[in-house]
Design a protein that fits this description.
Length: about 250
């Protein structure tokens, strides 16, 4: 039986005091402890890069180092990696150095992209193409917020353009979103999971296992769960080129 372990959380607001994520360093360390309990080997710290959050990209390495030191002092093995969640509305305001700094794992390739609220539109296609023209690839966040009649068709077009889709793990167990997410999974347009957790005490926990268990019951993901849980996340944070096997 597949054990969904040694995974990487590609989407987590664990850096404290920056956006609507971890309140303080203690909360952030508790989030890392949750992740370790779920078998998560690394977390991408992905603060919001958008106009309603005053996140300084230049300050992120220092904030990341502070959190890494606190996690190590707490004897937590889960590693904290660089990243950011870049809103489509803010994407084109970043220079190339800033864009590289918020790639997942700071590996220079994959950008976690947050679509604008509401149904997906051509702005997202444009953002994926803009990144591609600059040697980057898009990992599109939380499709559960944008479920619509043309969702599968749009996601297929985006993946054909080089994007991958990151679902929020909790959306696969939440009854309000589960049916829609299973439809996307059956259509082969979900690729990897992230927790999109914001705190250890409230909201979504830093866990991936329950979502992976749901995906393990659905084709074509069931036949490629190791790719979704391990191979693809590790490839993303190391800047590899990836093509979904389904």
């Amino acid at each position: 039986m597949f054990e969904p372990r040694a995974t990487i959380d590609l989407h987590c607001h664990i850096l404290p005091g920056l956006d609507d994520g971890a309140r303080d360093l203690s909360d952030a360390v508790a989030m890392a402890r949750q992740a370790q309990s779920d078998g998560i080997e690394a977390i991408c710290a992905t603060p919001h890069i958008r106009h309603d959050h005053a996140v300084s990209i230049a300050d992120l390495p220092e904030r990341l180092a502070e959190l890494r030191a606190a996690v190590a002092a707490a004897s937590i093995a889960t590693r904290i990696l660089a990243g950011g969640e870049v809103a489509t509305t803010a994407l084109k305001t970043l220079n190339l150095a800033e864009l590289a700094a918020v790639t997942l794992g700071r590996a220079g390739r994959w950008v976690l992209l947050e679509p604008a609220p509401g149904p997906l539109d051509d702005q997202l296609d444009d953002a994926v193409a803009w990144l591609s023209a600059r040697g980057r690839r898009a990992l599109i966040a939380h499709p559960e917020r944008h479920l619509s009649d043309d969702m599968i068709e749009r996601l297929r077009r985006l993946t054909a353009a080089g994007a991958l889709i990151q679902a929020t793990a909790a959306a696969l167990t939440d009854e309000s979103t589960k049916a829609g997410m299973l439809n996307l999974a059956r259509a082969g347009v979900l690729h990897v999971l992230g927790s999109d957790a914001h705190s250890a005490g409230t909201g979504r926990p830093v866990t991936l296992t329950p979502g992976l268990a749901v995906l393990g019951s659905v084709s074509p993901l069931a036949e490629h769960l190791d790719w979704a849980a391990r191979f693809a996340p590790r490839g993303i944070v190391s800047g590899q080129e990836l093509t979904a096997p389904f």
